Amino acid sequence: MIIYNVKLNKKLIFKSILIIMLIICISLGIVGVYNIGKNINQNKEFNLIDDSIPASEYATITKENYTNILKQVHNNIDTYVGQKISFSGYVYRVNNFSDNQFVLARDMDIGNYQTLIVGFLCSYDKALDYPSYTWVTIKGEITKGTYNNVETPIINITTIESTSKPENATVPLPDDEYVPTAVIY
Description:
It is built from 3 helices and 6 strands; from the N terminus they run H-E-H-H-E-E-E-E-E. By secondary structure, it is of the alpha/beta class. It has 2 domains: 1-46; 59-162, CATH 2.40.50.140.
């Protein structure tokens, strides 16, 4: 029978495990940085804009995402300039609009049977051909302009056609948890 008497140095074992874990973490960090660098070199640009919508197509704004998109575009105009969109609403005007301006509006349900008019300011050469409260579907491109000396998104309309009012035309309040995106899906 052979008996070995081995004395373990707990401090040495702890230091060894700590060093091994540190080496693993550093190795993973180097691999991560390498992969990021490789992706940047392949793309030549590192941006967060998702180009999944081809430039020739229009993103459709629905009743469900209307207020979330409206909020995001107003909060991040520069991100959305050039985005082509399509949506429907009714023509709404106020006294200080020019002849080629109107808001393509929807009524946002704020509770207790109350609504608030919300929408995008639009620009169209023949805007006066569409009376107030006429329901239309538009296609256009988001640009940046000013209204009452405040930067605001303006939709330059490329096509417009009359449509009927949907059965339930109100839109919901925007989500507090809405995650901003670089483009509208």
